[in-house]
Amino acid sequence: MPRPIHLWAFLQGIGHYPSGWRHPGAEPEGVFTMDYYARVGRLVEKGRFDAIVFGDQLQSRGVRGRTPEHLAMPTLDPMALLTAIASVTQHVGLVNTLSTTYWSPEGLAERFATMDRMSGGRAGWNIVTTAHPDTAPNFGDEELPEKSQRYKMAAQTVAQAQAIWRERNAALGPSPQARPVFVQAGQSGDGRDFAASIAEAIFCSAPTIEEGIAFRNDMRARVAAAGRDPDAVRIMPGLSFILAETEAAAIAKDQAILDLADEALCIEYLSESLNCDLTGFDPAGPIPVDHILSQTCFPKADIGRALEKPAAIGLPLGKFASGYVRTPRGHNVFRGTASQLANMMIQWVEAGACDGFTLQPAYMPGELEIFVEEVVPILQAAGALRTEYPGSTLRETMGLPRWPADMAA
Amino acid sequence: MTRSFILSAGIGDPALADPAMAAQFVTAAEAAGVDLLMLGRHDSLPFDPQVIAAWAAPRVSRLGLVPLVSSRIAHPFHVARALSAVDYLSGGLLGWCPVAQGGSAAQLADLVRATRALWDGWDDDCLIIDKASGRYLDTTKVRPSNYVGTHYAVRGPVNAMRPKQGHPVLVCDAASPFAVPGLDVVIAAEGQAFPAAARRLLRVDAGADLAAMAARFEAGEIDGLHIDLTNPAAELARIGKALAPLTQGRPSAGTLRERLGLPLSLRNIHEEIA
Lengths: 409, 274
Known about the structure:
The complex is a heterodimer.
Chain A: E1 6-10, H1 34-46, E2 51-54, H2 78-87, E3 93-99, H3 105-118, E4 123-128, H4 147-172, E5 181-184, H5 189-198, E6 201-204, H6 209-225, E7 234-243, H7 247-259, H8 263-274, H9 289-295, H10 300-312, H11 317-326, E8 332-336, H12 338-350, E9 356-361, H13 366-381, H14 394-397
Parallel strand pairs in A: 1-2, 1-9, 2-3, 3-4, 4-5, 5-6, 6-7, 7-8, 7-9
Helix pairs in contact in A: 1-2, 3-4, 5-6, 8-11, 12-13
Chain B: E1 6-11, H1 19-31, E2 36-39, H2 49-56, E3 64-70, H3 76-89, E4 95-99, H4 105-119, E5 127-130, E6 135-137, E7 147-148, E8 153-154, E9 169-173, E10 185-189, E11 199-205, H5 210-218, E12 224-229, H6 232-242, H7 244-247, H8 256-259, H9 269-273
Helix pairs in contact in B: 1-6, 2-3, 3-4
């Protein structure tokens, strides 16, 4: 029997590709309706996924208050969406992203305790510290705390929340999981150590099987060094996918979705990534490097380095932006048939590159429907994916100890 | 236009955070003709009422959900986002009742103003969503709020859509009053001052003579009743029966705001009314 594969659906927005909302199989209006989320929740449960994960930010898309015209931004509050999905499903876990920098321990403890109760023990918390400088003014601050300071605050906030949960559980009877499952996605040294100290599942990027193995080995060593059991932590790298009848057809489909990213979309997307509004510049003109460096509040050295080569060869702004959108960054992007994808997933898990995948459909819900209809049965026939859920709580579904050690009375 | 009687009921019992109990309460409230189900009481917030409202959203067809929002732990940026989402998920059946829970009335009013300012950063008609042209929205219809108040400063734009109703129905409990223009509904007990609001509900016990109270609606003194429930399932059945003559035959379609005959255009309400 192959090792079991855990599946998560990362469903913020309406797909992984910035142009995905324009695909005929995308339903961008749906994200404002309960019917859409009910359908997606049932679909994911049909595919026997562990959980739905919503990412989150605490700032709007765009730059300096200019909201993009060509990028979809259906960022309704994920806690509300996930709890509503809990109301119409029975098994699927619900992992909500929430910031330790811009939530109080009391506020987040209460929010997750309620979510765990209302979902019958299916709540997870993707613990983030918030990295975007534009968030600070939404909370009356001028700038973000510096990174290592944010991680210190995160550790404190988590500890305070744990104390509140212990106290409330003792007074009211425990919520079904005692506390939400802890999920973390830090890639830096600080982030990895923080994850090793508390995370029960880790979301990461692993573009190749070798990078997956290296990351998982590193994390397991850090988890063991923190005095915890590495087998009680699930490593879940991101995986975007484009499926078709043949590999050539999948590549053509991928190209067609990328072609939906017109120049206007690409320049807005690049503007957001550089934190500098480029929509007023001539797409046929040069990349305005000096302007970008004077405007951005992202690290100037990194941006300067990234722009150096394209500016030196005289690449026009529009072409640079289009190339930027078309270049995969970080996550593994699969293009091929359902059986090729299933084989790749089994191979990665067998090789110790991960414990499962955080699936990022290129567009929603169409591409996820194809995955559930075509890939899930192959994984199940191979004995790599469950056909029934083992229990009712998210920890049971993930094959983790039901009661986390830190919640013992 | 005939006046419609408004029936409000409130649950402060921690059983509300038990999904099996909450399901019973929501079903019973809907069957009893309740318009506003207050989730929590000003002196008793069972867990996080905003999360309970999200859970209840797919289960209501005409029942308005009114989470109590405590300025003790709430922040306007988080409140604006959560309530926007629940308003969409419930099909426009959301209200909200801010309460101070020991904090100041000034902070509570500031929370309301900041939250409204974030919602007003988005126009009702900002979305285009045209796959053919690739235009998702009209950027001229979205702007930072740049709100600076007595307790909160929030720049925006908030990363949430303007709520389906523009603003969810704003309810004020006179037990935790706050002064902002454009209150939709106010709840006050006998002898308590009613802050200015579009609709006035009298707070009564579940054991009160409801028919006699209802006569005061006919006389035009009040617009409806609010009842604090202590044994929700049983009391809701009795209330529904006692008030059936007033609650039956009222419109059941539309958003909560439409059904209660409340103002629909709320843009920059703080400037227009103040």
